Amino acid sequence: MTSITVKSLSFYYKKEDPILTDISLTFDQRTTAIIGQNGAGKTTLVKLLKGLLKPASGEIWINDQDTRVVSVAKLAGYIGLVFQNPNDQIFKSKVIDEVMFGPLNVGQPKEEAITNSMNALLMVGMEDKKDDHPYDLSLSERKLISIASIIAMNTDIVIFDEPTIAQDYAGKETIKRVIHDLQKKGKWVITIIHDMDFVAETFARTIVLANGKILLDGTTREIFLQKDVLVQAGLNLPHVTQLGYLLEKNKTVLTIDEFIKDSKL
Fold it and tell me: Which parts of the sequence belong to the ABC transporter domain (predicted)?
């Protein structure tokens, strides 16, 4: 059974300059956004979840595996991370080879890896690019290729680092659909993100980090009710939520559809 538990986690490179302090979390299957200003500790936290970093103190358990002692290679079978910059992830000269690299390295037989890779490319709408060189594609397309390469690994947990960077409206809608499809398949989706509009439209749970500590943790609607706390954390509300408050709507509006429906009442 999939599980992620963080207990009293702290991390620093220099003891006098802590990056994360006494973080305790239990993740569940809700789509979860982790938000906060640059330097809040978001990227450090997901690197710790992935096993790329080890706690200075405290524990992280992924599917009953203690990340302090289990290898990154073994954790790769449980948890996949889509990098913020696809250029830091992509290195093959053919899209299909890039997408297959992860599946093959976590032990999928070649035919299974091919099937999973083509299904992943289909999911992100890039199946017609399978024979292209990744660097002949746009940055937004490379981002979708990097997402497909992690999806194809078929891990229980998928982490996205700033998935909407370089994406236009169509790209964001594709990524939103991918996140929902992954959840329907029983995958756990965690995302680091600065795009508050995308958070409001896509994620059931939101965690706010500030100065290496958890400031807020709750449903996305509950979080965006905490206007003053978010301002103190240097975060903006989603645009439609701001508009709703300006027009004195009787609730926290998260999406344009909600805004329109509320306007008709």
Answer: 4-236
